[in-house]
Amino acid sequence: MIISIIVSSLLVFIVSIGLTVWTKRKYCYAMKWIWLGGGIWLAGIALKFGFSALANSPILFWLQDMLKYEWYLGLGSLYIGVLTGIFEIGITLMFALLIRKMTINPSRAIGIGVGAGAIEAVMIGLSQIANAVYALTGGRGSGDILNAVSAAAELNPLFFLLAPVERVIAILCHASSRVLTLYAVARKNCWYFVIGFLLMTGLDAVAGYAHLSGLLSRASAWWIELAILPFAVISVPLMRWCVSHWPLPDNRQTPPEHIQE
Question: How many CB atoms lie within 10 A of CB 106?
């Protein structure tokens, strides 16, 4: 089990680094945009965790008490998804309005979006390795970690591939939602922001449903990955469209391969 976690973590690192290197070569953005995207993601996550620690329990308990179970699952999942939209995509919009250089060309937007997803992937990979190392020490709670991993492995064939596949989907969604947000500022058209907001909201609403319903303890997580896959599939043409229609200061268009930092 420990070997599966380590292999899974290494594959997560490979996915995040590989997508970063590939997009950097294709779109020629500077690494500072990767770090900026990751920093904006960290800021949003910190705010979301702070809000969630204070509000999630009372709000979800209230929904559970007031509504039938099916409605509780639906609205509770939507609430979890909306939090992601507000604190991740909303804060991206705030930074884009404050730092207009972020929206000058699509290469920067791609770097910022990939940076958000890649930094999240690296953090998840590091946390997996930390859990594996701690489990090896035999410290307090290490048995619980091993039992949880063992149970998850029994439910999920090819368990070591689950996290890297999820990260590919997540990075594509992170990138597209942020590209749409930055494109909305560049175009001065709020509807592109709405699309990006709804994309990340929908993605985390599915994850929220799996959490609230306890589905992850009863069924293979591969079904969850299949449910969120459409969000990643649609992300690719959305990004390509934004890149090919990105406005320039002189209102002309330029092919993506000619975009330079």
Answer: 25
